[in-house]
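Q: Given only this backbone (181 positions), what sequence would you predict?
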């Protein structure tokens, strides 16, 4: 399929979750720019494993990968006071907002008016909540958040098949040290 002139920034949380979204967006004709910004991931060696998997995935699909600097203090500042929140609570919302805001800033700085996230492919994440946050952030930056529900049409199974085929690193927790409990 011929590439659309439209570029889209895909915030990637990890190689496993972004496999099918990259494939889906490329099949839709987008030029996909993958943005890896995840200051929530703990510890640093875990971050590096996930980044390496993302590099492998992007090389496979021939798409550009932009690696943001790893600065966990950005996450801890955003999550301050919410450390005891349960998974899927207010701390997670702040984490999503932080990462989607940084993604919007990245897209805006590159003159790209559309962005989305691979986080929504996880059956453990709230698609509606992520869409609400993404659309609110997009409005602030005069951009379009593209609310693709990558879970549809067996997207989660497809992304797992892609990751197994590429032998990508598979984590067993969301990412932050609070999600380890």
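A: Predicted residues:
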């Amino acid at each position: 399929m011929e590439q659309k002139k439209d570029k889209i920034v895909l915030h990637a949380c990890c190689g496993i979750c972004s496999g099918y979204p990259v494939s889906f967006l490329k099949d839709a004709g987008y030029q996909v720019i993958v943005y890896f910004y995840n200051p929530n991931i703990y510890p640093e060696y875990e971050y590096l494993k996930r980044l390496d998997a993302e590099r492998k995935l992007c090389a496979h699909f021939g798409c550009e990968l932009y690696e943001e600097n790893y600065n966990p203090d950005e996450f801890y500042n955003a999550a301050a006071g919410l450390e005891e929140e349960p998974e899927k609570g207010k701390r997670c919302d702040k984490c999503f907002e932080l990462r989607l805001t940084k993604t919007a800033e990245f897209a805006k700085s590159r003159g790209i008016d559309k962005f989305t996230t691979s986080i929504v492919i996880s059956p453990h994440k709230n698609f509606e909540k992520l869409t609400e946050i993404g659309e609110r952030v997009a409005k602030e930056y005069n951009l379009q958040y593209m609310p693709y529900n990558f879970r549809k049409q067996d997207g989660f199974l497809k992304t797992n098949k892609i990751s197994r085929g590429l032998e990508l690193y598979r984590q067993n927790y969301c990412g932050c040290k609070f999600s380890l409990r």
